[in-house]
Amino acid sequence: MGSFAKAERLLARLQALGEVGALPGGGVCRLALSQADGAGRDLVCGWMRAAGLDVIVDGIGNIFGTRPGTQPGPSVMIGSHIDTVATGGIYDGNLGVLAGLEVVEALDDAGIATLKPITVAAFTNEEGARFAPDMLGSLVHVGGLDLGTALDIVSIDGARLGDELAAISYAGTAPLGAIRAAAYLEYHIEQGPVLEAEGTDIGVVEGVQGISWTEVTLSGRSSHAGATPMRLRHDAGLAAARIAAGVGEIVRGIGGDMVGTVGSLKLSPGLVNVIAEKAVLTVDLRHPDEATLRQAEAKLAALIATVAAAETVTASTRTLARFEPVAFDKALVGSVEATARALGLSTRRLYSGAGHDAQMLARTCPAAMIFVPSVDGLSHNVRELTQPGDIANGLDVLATLALDLAGRANAAVVGISRANAATGETTDSNANLKES
Amino acid sequence: MGSFAKAERLLARLQALGEVGALPGGGVCRLALSQADGAGRDLVCGWMRAAGLDVIVDGIGNIFGTRPGTQPGPSVMIGSHIDTVATGGIYDGNLGVLAGLEVVEALDDAGIATLKPITVAAFTNEEGARFAPDMLGSLVHVGGLDLGTALDIVSIDGARLGDELAAISYAGTAPLGAIRAAAYLEYHIEQGPVLEAEGTDIGVVEGVQGISWTEVTLSGRSSHAGATPMRLRHDAGLAAARIAAGVGEIVRGIGGDMVGTVGSLKLSPGLVNVIAEKAVLTVDLRHPDEATLRQAEAKLAALIATVAAAETVTASTRTLARFEPVAFDKALVGSVEATARALGLSTRRLYSGAGHDAQMLARTCPAAMIFVPSVDGLSHNVRELTQPGDIANGLDVLATLALDLAGRANAAVVGISRANAATGETTDSNANLKES
Fold this sequence. Notes:
Chain A is α/β, with parallel strands linked by helices.
């Protein structure tokens, strides 16, 4: 039971990072590449450097802090993100990054050296709340999106990503993919209600649902709400409402794990007595099975065409994000499960309904995720909460498995060297071990 | 055919007033009591004073410019409003005010004195686009709403009406209802497509549809769009969409003259991947028959309750405006029709789908309206247009009827006196006539 890692320190850091961009009524707003995100990055990088990690930042602003191993080669990477949605909680993403930091510090404290390096990663714009697509930093990291294209993405507030990155001084110079990973572990809150409802300690994540984001723009004609007979209208607002309501019908019709959300719907001019000339809505569809997801997309396309014709408006669509379902490495998923059980924790296999950086990393290395319960299943919500005991459980699984994957080396000596490295000093023993 | 009034001068003033708050792509934005509205008022008051009118402003900012008659007593009032929606045209409201101004100037030009005074009125916040309810100024004028209550109304942008009125220096000192009206005439564009479609010159307005504005607020729970199963959601956005779509079904189900519009629908936090915690939408229902309007309201209430229960969200509603249908004075409506026909113009009786200040004035005096065609039926739209020939037709009807109602006095002498009054001079003949 337990591990060498210290949940208290992790919990304190979650609270401290949660103060950056804190909202008056609770929760946090650190939209990607905002000034608050910059301040959060500064705090985390400071902690990394204080822990002696070698911190580098790449061209899309991904942050990597590495604790060397006794052998050269790829890292065991532990990561997630620290950007949040506009009304987010303090756990989503932050937990995975700060737990990684806790693991390396706890290894130092325990005087444990590892064969492989351990890298703590914080990826840029995972949420996609300000820049689409989501999971942008990890996507660029694995070569799934060209850096130049990514830097030219424009935010919902009209800002260019590259400019915003430079404005917070996180346009780094490290080459993309400079840190190679032997394995990637992401520790995250469930963000759903399943583990809590079943009283399960650890969610063993088999993969990530496929994600399809579509922006629908409807163009009609604004005219007087009182003087325009229904038959002569081109009401973009009514068309948008019918599509948004229809998304609910499609999703419930498919049933099972299918989910769909219209989280944003904007009418213009947006006045009580003016028929809307334009409506823009977003449709978020997710399912663990690609064929089912495509079925939902086809039904959505048909719905949009039917409604646009019926309401005599024109419709156009734009794909904001599209990721196929991802299955994590079976062996690594098995290791998460075995590690948790060996620690005496109950487990359940599940698919993630949310997108995560792990699904991008899975393109280039074995990846897996560890979930812990979310109170009331809430996430992307200022009332997001995971209980301290659950935080500690997941940290134990992460620390134990990370050490297992990295491999224990001559612990005591390197432990001392790491402590010295944190103060800027080096020792012969450290140098020797690096070359061993 | 024709009258003593000059359409060219009216058209030029419509263009000039349309420059105040003009939008880059055409159209105009002079939301009530905005700085642009203040500038528009200054322009119109300047024209009124230059025309020798006695201009007074009451406590709610209504503007009245009076041309004296040869007999004391109530005025023939010609009025409308000069505030606009956010993306409005230059005719809506402005036409009625500036046509009134043209009538009194043309009477001067023609040297015609009238027995009754003629008052040109511009009422505050007719549109209701910034402050609810609409037709606020005329409602307060006829005693339908207490002045103190009206001044405390808060705009969609959070400003208090009384403060905004003071900020543009239109918190006047004239007592409410100081100008009594023997009759009220409002000349307005149709704002709908009926007259143009039928090729009719003049719409003889029998009355105004009843208007019901309801704001619906739905409160759910924001959570992750991917990780929250459909059965566990409290999606305020989906509930709002179902209600907005349902409004279309209710209205089409009732059919005939029934119209309904959801012009504003706002989701928060309004992000692609976050289930909406809160939704606020407005429902605008209108029908010429009170019983049918109530039927629609009852169906809306039932819909809201059904959807809220089905989507496990809470719903609250607030009435933003509620006006019963108004029938105009039958004799005066008949006079509009007879006047138009005597001028050789084709006519059609119809109900106004839009609310107008005339419906408020109808509470205290005989009121009637004159409609002219709107190109493509467009209004509350930057492309709002009425052809010059149609503007001239309506002006002829207005001028002819206004003179008929006011009664012709010793024309030539007073004509000269009015011209002098415009330059600030007075004559004995004028003084004598005022006392006659």
